[in-house]
Each structure stands twice: as C-alpha cells, then as structure tokens.
Amino acid sequence: MPKEYTVRQGDCLNSISEKHGLFWQTLWDDPGNKALKDRRKDPNVLQPGDILTIPDKREKNEDCSSDSKHRFRKKGVPAKMKVQLVIEDEPIKNQPYSMMIDDQFWSEGTTDGDGYLETAVPPQVKTGKIIVGPPDNRISFSVDFGTLDPLDTEDGALQRLRNMGYEVGEDPRGALESFQEKEDLTVTGELNQATRDRIKEVFGQ
User: What is the pTM of this model?
Assistant: First the structure.
C-alpha cells in the first residue's frame, strides 16, 4: 500500500527515494504527488512539511544467463551537484578544487570558465566542503545539502540572497534593497514578485 512521508529539514528527493529503495523519478512522477509537483515545480527544492506519497515498489525481471556474472546499476545514483563559486561578484574560473563529504575526501577537479563545478554526491549526504584555488591561496566554502527552501517562501528567497553574498540579518530590508539596486529594480526593501523573479534569474532556481 502507498504511504505518506513528511519532508524534514535536510531531506531532498534523492535522499528520500534512496531511503525507500526507489528512483527519484518514480516518486516525482507518481500520480499521488501531482499536486506537490505542480506547486514546487523543481524536484530539487522541497519544503519541510511537504507530504510525499511513497508508492509500492514494482518488481522488474531481467533475463540473463545463470553461468555468468552480471552487474546492475541503479539509475540516478550517485546524484549530481552543480554549483558556481563566486567571490565579490567574480567567478572563480579555471581553478583546482577538492570536495570533502562529511569530513572525508570525495572528489577533485577544476572549475570551468564560468566558475562552475559539477560532481557526483551520495544521496544521503548532509554536509560538504569545497576547497578551491592554488596551494598558497585556497578558499573554503561550506555546503549544506537539502536545506534550501522553495523560492516561493520567504526563507527560501532570503537563503538565496545569503548564498549570493548578501548580508541578511533579522531585518532583511537592507539586503533586499541592495539586491534591488544592483539589479536595477524599484528599491522598496520588500520581497515582491519582481524581486523573486530576478532572484530566480540570477540564482538559477
């Protein structure tokens, strides 16, 4: 029988599907989750308190010979992370980086010409650290997975401003005014729809 799951802080669709032995696409496309899918749009951004329907697992049979070894790979595992590294509005381009997951070395590579890096991450990961730059000038970024709220919530919009380097205190009006001024919006200090739309354009989701 299908069951309901309440999303908690730190959850993401990949971690929830992994926990229940399903593909994330199976959860997202299940008819029981249509209303949530229509509301959230992005499967990577859920809100604590959202209700997901967990469908029953479906058995799948594969024909293969019994006298050979066979390898089966679960689709969508590990998950992919793509992030742009920026300092004072300047992307950190073409620089070596290393990625730590839960205090253990995970991967390394080089940022691209726009400061982006893309790497695989395990579905249940909670925290990470990116160390970027040459040995004599390294910069460290902390990463919390599954903590970004949807953009249509106030917390979600302000989280994105923080991630873009704006100082968001108890009163967010200063950060909103700075963002609006920089993006040539009407400066109101209010989180209006025009500001949300521009945050989405700049941040990416």
Answer: 0.60
